[in-house]
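Table S2 (text version). Query chain:
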Amino acid sequence: MMETVYNKNGASLRCWPPTSLLFALAASILVLLLSGCSEEPEQQKEEADTVSSFAGCLSCHNLDLDKHHRLDCTSCHGGNGEALGLEEAHLGLVAAPAHPDQADQVCGSCHREQVEMVAANGHYTLIGHISAVRAAFGSPSSPESALQITAAAQPGSETELVDDLLRRRCLRCHVYTRGDTFPAIDRGLGCAACHLAPHQAEAGRHLFRGHPADDACLSCHYGNHVGFDYYGRYEHDFNREYRTPYLAVDDVVAPYGVEFHQLEADAHRQAGMVCIDCHGQDQVMGVAAGPTCSACHDRKRKETLPPAGITDTADGPVFISAATTRSFPVPQLRHPAHAAYRDTAVCLACHARWTFNDGTTHLVRIDHDDFYDFFRLSVDGSSEVKTIIESHIDFDGAWLDPVMTDKFTGEDLPGVWLKGYLERRWEEPLFARDDDGRISPARPILDLRLSWIDGNETVRFDNLRPRPDSHLLRPYAPHTVGPAGLFYEERLRRFQIRELSLPAE
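Corresponding structure-token output:
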């Protein structure tokens, strides 16, 4: 039998005892003689090299590797794989080789085209979101990179307060951050944010996926943001006293930080399609435009190129998923309403079954340590907020300082950003005109109020609002597609009547 012994680093090793060594050696020779040379010399050499390259690292790290990344650990992480001591082995170690600061050199050594492609992608830069919020509050300039905005211990202007909000509260979905500590949104950095499963980015989980699964998408597209709605999810109110299904406090499970209502999922989701079926590499990693309904469902017009995987057959178009290999029939437009309203409204104006209608988002920075009045906001999707507030309402524990990290640098800075809403509803879709003048679903994503109370409990900025010329309702594409139903025309008519009653800008 084998014995368990330990090396000087504390790692366990399975070894033959001396009394069994001769027997084991004889048995090994006998196996080799009986098996002959069943493996090719090249294969034997490759496997031997693989084992030897991991030997030092595997003495401490229990690794799960995908078949495409069975590389020498040091080729990505640096360090010394042959060293026996911890300090020597970790000299020059790169803990997060997929981090944007390292990805060009590490990931790019094999995936050069993909690394160069993603550098200008909206998922990587988030410039669209940053610029929209800054412009709403009168910022005179638009940054070229999220790295150009900074957190501020003592904001001296509206722009500095907005930038501090973005860096420390809003940009938790940037590839420079690990998201949050909740299971479904604890993810890797850089390339690993999408290509590793959430909550598996810690050392030892190296099962990279060429096709990101939906759980990777939802590690950023959760809460009341597009993507969560694809699965029919609508985030709960933040008040602890209102939680359905009704659960005891100790039973509450919130993988995204806040529980969600389960509404009707998107028709494409119900059919079994995954995110990357529609949102391909050129869009998710590049700068290509997003998919259009007509590219698939109005093939006769051929206005835009069809997505990869769609084929016209005698029985109609069929889509074959590259991610799942499943095939889906693609229904074509037949109802006369499509032609009648094509130039009046976008498809989702009739086919979105519900939308995100979070009315007036309040964001308050608190620098003082009296959090008792804010205890209901301990459930707002941020583990930092949850931990700090709960420490201040637990009189038997130690009160934590009111600090929140810069999500790019990890630096602790004074002040905690709290989030709340005036109203959270989904029943009645909201509408606005898109850039082409068509009626489109819209959400009040820029209906924001910003405040700051400093460490002396002095209100420094009070209920700042976006500029009067800001468009608080922004057209968007809710992923809640379904049949238009009987009253689709009434939707459009109500919006047009309301639009005529509004005062001219």
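Notes on Table S2: The longest strand covers residues 357-366. DSSP finds 19 helices and 18 strands in the chain.
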